[in-house]
Sequence to fold (91 residues):
Amino acid sequence: MISYGWLLAGIAKSPEHKPDDMNKSTLNFWILFTVSIILSALIISIFIKVLKVALFVILVLVLAPIIYIVLKLLLPGARGKSEDDKLKSRP
Fold:
């Protein structure tokens, strides 16, 4: 078996790697990690809302003329003036 005790003893004895520093860096990592996940979730939800609004506007702009034409064809009073309704011009 390979023993890594000498490596761990060297890290524990070195002045730059204190256990408190490890706890602070670990805590900083988890704080940054959770904040980044929350911010990315907010950005994604805002992006999806913007996409929904854009899709809604596009569908309204596409469907409005089609519905107008269908209603114009179906409703008898909305056909406009016929030849009988026009005023006769004077000769």
Q: What stands out?
A: The two ends are 117 Å apart (CA to CA). The mean pLDDT is 80. DSSP finds two helices and no strands in the chain.
